[in-house]
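Today's session is about reading a structure prediction critically. Students often jump straight to the picture, but the first step is always the sequence itself: look for stretches that repeat, for charged clusters, for runs of hydrophobic residues. Only then move on to the predicted structure, which in these notes is written as discrete structure tokens rather than atom positions. Here is the chain we will use throughout the hour.
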Amino acid sequence: MNDTDSKIWVDADACPNPIKEILFRAAERKGVRVILVANQLLRVPVSPHIAVVRVGSGFDVADQYIEDQVRANDLVITADIPLAAAVIDKDALAVNPRGELYNADNIRQKLTMRDFMETLRGSGVHTGGPDSFSQADKHAFAKTLDKWLAGR
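Below is the predicted structure for this chain, in token form.
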């Protein structure tokens, strides 16, 4: 398989709509296959480049599907750190919807921090949530996506 066969997998249940719109435009512009995986019904443009896979409900069902299907050089859009780690282990790339690229150099640290925060929340400490999705996040994502598209 060459890099032009690479696909974009989207952990779509929690993916912000502005990111989906960027991906839909990229699919049409570059002819790249975008596959959204979700446990709910999604509306997407009719396109030979865009597909939706609806998985059953349940904890991490969509993540497991993506992990099983992803191949080397594919790109996965996810905010899920364990899924990103599994993707990296398969020689694929992962980026979160805010444009941050996960890689072998930073994923272990992010897993450790995620586990630490989960432990805090489990013991009753309020840790807050992520900042609201912003225009800067959208632009950062678009820049990261463009870089991946140019290199494939």
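Discussion point for the tutorial: The mean pLDDT is 89.
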